[in-house]
Structure prediction request, 286 residues.
Amino acid sequence: MFKKSILSSVIFISLATCSQNAFSRTYEMPDNCELDGNTAYDFSISNLEEQIQFGYDIYNDPSASSGDISAHQGWIEQISELINSFDSVKVSAPKHVLRGQTFRAKGEAFLDPYVNIKFSNSEKGYVGTDKTNLETNAYKNMSFSNTYGIGLVWAHRASGLCSSQQVWVQFSPDITINSASDSSGAISASISYDVDKYSKAAKNPSTNVRVELKATSEIYGSVSTKYIYSSILDNNINLSVFPSAGGGPYLVQATVSDGTYSKSYTYGTIFISGPSSPPCQSCQPL
Prediction:
Protein backbone atom coordinates (compact mmCIF):
# COMPACT_ATOMS: atom_id res chain seq x y z
CA MET A 1 0.00 0.00 0.00
CA PHE A 2 2.69 2.51 1.01
CA LYS A 3 5.05 1.51 -1.80
CA LYS A 4 2.39 1.84 -4.41
CA SER A 5 1.21 5.24 -3.19
CA ILE A 6 4.74 6.65 -3.43
CA LEU A 7 5.26 5.06 -6.83
CA SER A 8 1.99 6.53 -8.04
CA SER A 9 3.10 9.96 -6.83
CA VAL A 10 6.42 9.64 -8.65
CA ILE A 11 4.70 8.59 -11.87
CA PHE A 12 2.12 11.34 -11.53
CA ILE A 13 4.77 14.02 -11.05
CA SER A 14 6.85 12.66 -13.89
CA LEU A 15 4.11 12.08 -16.44
CA ALA A 16 1.69 14.89 -15.68
CA THR A 17 0.90 17.17 -18.61
CA CYS A 18 -0.84 19.90 -16.65
CA SER A 19 0.27 23.51 -16.81
CA GLN A 20 3.20 24.87 -14.81
CA ASN A 21 0.91 27.10 -12.74
CA ALA A 22 -1.18 24.14 -11.61
CA PHE A 23 1.78 21.86 -10.94
CA SER A 24 3.66 21.89 -7.65
CA ARG A 25 7.39 21.72 -8.31
CA THR A 26 8.62 21.28 -4.73
CA TYR A 27 10.81 18.19 -4.64
CA GLU A 28 12.85 18.69 -1.44
CA MET A 29 12.73 15.95 1.12
CA PRO A 30 12.13 17.16 4.72
CA ASP A 31 15.24 17.33 6.89
CA ASN A 32 13.94 14.64 9.25
CA CYS A 33 13.63 12.03 6.48
CA GLU A 34 16.59 9.76 7.00
CA LEU A 35 17.23 6.09 7.56
CA ASP A 36 19.47 5.20 10.43
CA GLY A 37 22.53 3.11 9.62
CA ASN A 38 21.08 1.19 6.70
CA THR A 39 22.96 0.32 3.52
CA ALA A 40 20.34 -1.77 1.74
CA TYR A 41 20.25 0.62 -1.17
CA ASP A 42 22.30 3.49 -2.50
CA PHE A 43 19.87 6.12 -3.68
CA SER A 44 20.21 9.90 -3.48
CA ILE A 45 17.18 12.15 -3.30
CA SER A 46 18.99 14.57 -5.64
CA ASN A 47 18.90 11.86 -8.34
CA LEU A 48 15.16 11.59 -7.92
CA GLU A 49 14.76 15.37 -8.15
CA GLU A 50 16.79 15.52 -11.37
CA GLN A 51 14.78 12.75 -13.01
CA ILE A 52 11.44 14.26 -12.01
CA GLN A 53 12.56 17.59 -13.44
CA PHE A 54 13.68 15.82 -16.63
CA GLY A 55 10.32 14.08 -16.93
CA TYR A 56 8.46 17.32 -16.37
CA ASP A 57 10.47 19.05 -19.07
CA ILE A 58 10.12 16.42 -21.79
CA TYR A 59 6.39 15.99 -21.27
CA ASN A 60 5.89 19.74 -21.59
CA ASP A 61 8.18 20.09 -24.61
CA PRO A 62 6.35 19.68 -27.94
CA SER A 63 9.68 18.98 -29.62
CA ALA A 64 10.58 16.11 -27.30
CA SER A 65 11.49 13.03 -29.28
CA SER A 66 9.93 9.64 -28.81
CA GLY A 67 13.38 8.46 -27.76
CA ASP A 68 13.45 10.92 -24.85
CA ILE A 69 10.00 9.80 -23.74
CA SER A 70 10.92 6.13 -24.08
CA ALA A 71 14.10 6.64 -22.06
CA HIS A 72 12.18 8.32 -19.28
CA GLN A 73 9.58 5.56 -19.25
CA GLY A 74 12.46 3.14 -18.79
CA TRP A 75 13.58 5.12 -15.76
CA ILE A 76 10.04 4.93 -14.35
CA GLU A 77 10.22 1.14 -14.58
CA GLN A 78 13.58 1.16 -12.80
CA ILE A 79 12.36 3.39 -9.99
CA SER A 80 9.34 1.10 -9.63
CA GLU A 81 11.65 -1.87 -9.10
CA LEU A 82 13.76 0.16 -6.69
CA ILE A 83 10.81 1.24 -4.56
CA ASN A 84 9.48 -2.30 -4.47
CA SER A 85 12.87 -3.51 -3.25
CA PHE A 86 13.16 -1.07 -0.31
CA ASP A 87 14.19 -3.22 2.64
CA SER A 88 15.16 -1.70 5.96
CA VAL A 89 14.81 -2.01 9.72
CA LYS A 90 15.46 0.30 12.64
CA VAL A 91 15.21 -0.70 16.29
CA SER A 92 14.46 1.67 19.15
CA ALA A 93 14.14 1.06 22.89
CA PRO A 94 14.36 3.11 26.09
CA LYS A 95 17.95 4.26 26.62
CA HIS A 96 17.77 3.32 30.31
CA VAL A 97 15.86 0.27 31.54
CA LEU A 98 15.38 -1.20 35.00
CA ARG A 99 16.90 -4.57 35.74
CA GLY A 100 14.16 -7.19 35.97
CA GLN A 101 11.48 -4.86 34.58
CA THR A 102 9.74 -5.33 31.23
CA PHE A 103 10.19 -2.71 28.53
CA ARG A 104 9.07 -2.49 24.92
CA ALA A 105 11.34 -2.40 21.88
CA LYS A 106 10.13 -1.16 18.51
CA GLY A 107 11.25 -2.31 15.09
CA GLU A 108 10.45 0.00 12.20
CA ALA A 109 10.39 -1.29 8.63
CA PHE A 110 10.61 1.33 5.90
CA LEU A 111 7.47 1.20 3.71
CA ASP A 112 6.80 -2.43 4.64
CA PRO A 113 3.62 -3.32 6.54
CA TYR A 114 2.92 -6.96 7.43
CA VAL A 115 6.52 -8.19 7.48
CA ASN A 116 8.07 -10.20 10.31
CA ILE A 117 10.72 -8.60 12.51
CA LYS A 118 12.68 -10.73 14.95
CA PHE A 119 13.78 -9.22 18.27
CA SER A 120 16.75 -10.25 20.39
CA ASN A 121 18.87 -8.96 23.25
CA SER A 122 22.34 -9.66 24.55
CA GLU A 123 21.15 -11.55 27.62
CA LYS A 124 18.45 -13.85 26.27
CA GLY A 125 19.16 -13.94 22.55
CA TYR A 126 16.02 -14.31 20.45
CA VAL A 127 12.94 -13.15 22.38
CA GLY A 128 10.22 -13.23 19.72
CA THR A 129 8.82 -12.07 16.40
CA ASP A 130 6.16 -9.51 15.60
CA LYS A 131 4.57 -8.49 12.31
CA THR A 132 4.66 -4.82 11.34
CA ASN A 133 1.35 -2.94 11.38
CA LEU A 134 0.00 -0.44 8.87
CA GLU A 135 2.40 2.14 10.30
CA THR A 136 5.21 -0.37 9.50
CA ASN A 137 6.11 -0.80 13.18
CA ALA A 138 6.52 -4.02 15.14
CA TYR A 139 6.85 -4.32 18.93
CA LYS A 140 8.15 -6.82 21.44
CA ASN A 141 8.32 -6.78 25.24
CA MET A 142 11.56 -7.94 26.81
CA SER A 143 13.67 -7.55 29.95
CA PHE A 144 17.17 -7.96 31.37
CA SER A 145 17.08 -10.12 34.49
CA ASN A 146 20.80 -10.62 35.11
CA THR A 147 22.54 -7.89 33.12
CA TYR A 148 23.82 -4.83 34.97
CA GLY A 149 25.38 -2.07 32.90
CA ILE A 150 25.56 -2.36 29.13
CA GLY A 151 22.91 -4.33 27.27
CA LEU A 152 22.19 -4.66 23.58
CA VAL A 153 18.84 -4.86 21.79
CA TRP A 154 18.54 -5.67 18.10
CA ALA A 155 15.94 -6.36 15.45
CA HIS A 156 16.45 -8.13 12.14
CA ARG A 157 14.53 -9.23 9.10
CA ALA A 158 14.61 -12.33 6.94
CA SER A 159 16.71 -10.41 4.42
CA GLY A 160 19.52 -10.27 6.98
CA LEU A 161 19.30 -6.56 7.69
CA CYS A 162 19.84 -5.80 11.37
CA SER A 163 19.62 -2.73 13.57
CA SER A 164 20.99 -2.63 17.12
CA GLN A 165 20.86 -0.24 20.06
CA GLN A 166 22.78 -0.12 23.32
CA VAL A 167 20.79 0.30 26.52
CA TRP A 168 21.88 0.94 30.09
CA VAL A 169 20.50 -1.61 32.56
CA GLN A 170 20.20 -0.02 35.99
CA PHE A 171 18.51 -0.20 39.36
CA SER A 172 15.82 2.22 40.48
CA PRO A 173 16.94 5.25 42.53
CA ASP A 174 16.38 5.12 46.27
CA ILE A 175 15.56 7.74 48.89
CA THR A 176 14.68 7.94 52.58
CA ILE A 177 13.89 10.69 55.09
CA ASN A 178 16.03 10.06 58.14
CA SER A 179 14.29 12.69 60.27
CA ALA A 180 11.89 15.61 59.94
CA SER A 181 10.87 18.30 62.40
CA ASP A 182 9.39 21.75 62.95
CA SER A 183 12.24 24.24 62.68
CA SER A 184 11.04 27.77 63.48
CA GLY A 185 7.88 27.33 61.44
CA ALA A 186 9.53 25.43 58.59
CA ILE A 187 9.65 21.70 58.00
CA SER A 188 13.28 20.58 58.01
CA ALA A 189 14.23 17.11 56.80
CA SER A 190 17.41 15.05 56.67
CA ILE A 191 17.35 13.08 53.43
CA SER A 192 19.55 10.29 52.05
CA TYR A 193 19.39 9.29 48.39
CA ASP A 194 21.22 6.97 46.04
CA VAL A 195 21.17 7.04 42.23
CA ASP A 196 22.53 4.21 40.09
CA LYS A 197 25.86 4.65 38.30
CA TYR A 198 24.25 3.57 35.01
CA SER A 199 21.33 6.00 35.23
CA LYS A 200 20.79 8.98 32.94
CA ALA A 201 21.95 11.36 35.68
CA ALA A 202 25.20 9.41 35.89
CA LYS A 203 25.84 9.00 32.16
CA ASN A 204 24.41 12.18 30.65
CA PRO A 205 26.45 15.30 31.56
CA SER A 206 23.40 17.52 31.00
CA THR A 207 21.21 15.63 33.50
CA ASN A 208 21.44 16.06 37.27
CA VAL A 209 19.79 14.28 40.17
CA ARG A 210 16.62 16.02 41.36
CA VAL A 211 15.60 15.77 45.02
CA GLU A 212 12.30 17.23 46.23
CA LEU A 213 10.79 17.70 49.67
CA LYS A 214 7.00 18.07 49.76
CA ALA A 215 4.66 19.06 52.58
CA THR A 216 0.90 18.64 52.13
CA SER A 217 -1.50 20.35 54.54
CA GLU A 218 -3.88 17.79 56.00
CA ILE A 219 -6.34 20.59 56.73
CA TYR A 220 -6.52 22.32 53.34
CA GLY A 221 -4.76 19.91 50.97
CA SER A 222 -2.37 22.65 49.78
CA VAL A 223 1.17 21.66 48.86
CA SER A 224 4.55 23.28 49.42
CA THR A 225 7.72 21.99 47.76
CA LYS A 226 11.44 22.60 47.84
CA TYR A 227 13.85 20.91 45.43
CA ILE A 228 17.49 20.91 44.44
CA TYR A 229 19.55 19.57 41.54
CA SER A 230 22.83 17.83 42.24
CA SER A 231 25.59 16.11 40.28
CA ILE A 232 26.32 13.87 43.29
CA LEU A 233 24.82 10.41 42.91
CA ASP A 234 24.90 9.32 46.56
CA ASN A 235 24.44 11.93 49.25
CA ASN A 236 22.93 13.02 52.56
CA ILE A 237 21.29 16.45 52.42
CA ASN A 238 19.07 18.74 54.48
CA LEU A 239 16.08 20.46 52.90
CA SER A 240 13.55 22.82 54.44
CA VAL A 241 10.15 23.88 53.16
CA PHE A 242 7.80 26.50 54.57
CA PRO A 243 4.28 25.14 55.06
CA SER A 244 1.53 26.60 52.92
CA ALA A 245 -1.20 26.91 55.56
CA GLY A 246 0.43 27.98 58.80
CA GLY A 247 0.31 25.67 61.77
CA GLY A 248 -1.21 22.22 61.76
CA PRO A 249 -0.50 18.71 60.48
CA TYR A 250 1.49 18.16 57.27
CA LEU A 251 2.21 14.96 55.38
CA VAL A 252 5.94 14.95 54.55
CA GLN A 253 7.33 13.18 51.48
CA ALA A 254 10.55 13.18 49.46
CA THR A 255 11.21 12.17 45.84
CA VAL A 256 14.41 11.55 43.91
CA SER A 257 14.65 11.42 40.11
CA ASP A 258 17.59 10.21 38.01
CA GLY A 259 16.31 11.72 34.76
CA THR A 260 14.34 8.61 33.79
CA TYR A 261 13.04 6.96 36.96
CA SER A 262 11.79 8.34 40.27
CA LYS A 263 11.33 7.00 43.79
CA SER A 264 9.26 8.55 46.56
CA TYR A 265 9.36 8.09 50.33
CA THR A 266 6.59 9.02 52.77
CA TYR A 267 7.85 10.01 56.21
CA GLY A 268 4.51 10.65 57.86
CA THR A 269 2.80 13.57 59.57
CA ILE A 270 4.62 16.52 61.15
CA PHE A 271 2.79 19.05 63.34
CA ILE A 272 3.74 22.69 62.91
CA SER A 273 3.04 24.90 65.89
CA GLY A 274 0.83 27.95 65.61
CA PRO A 275 -2.57 28.68 64.12
CA SER A 276 -3.49 27.46 60.68
CA SER A 277 -4.23 29.95 57.92
CA PRO A 278 -6.02 29.33 54.61
CA PRO A 279 -3.58 29.37 51.66
CA CYS A 280 -6.13 31.41 49.66
CA GLN A 281 -9.23 33.50 50.39
CA SER A 282 -11.60 30.92 49.00
CA CYS A 283 -9.82 27.88 50.47
CA GLN A 284 -11.89 25.76 52.83
CA PRO A 285 -10.86 22.91 55.12
CA LEU A 286 -11.11 19.46 53.59
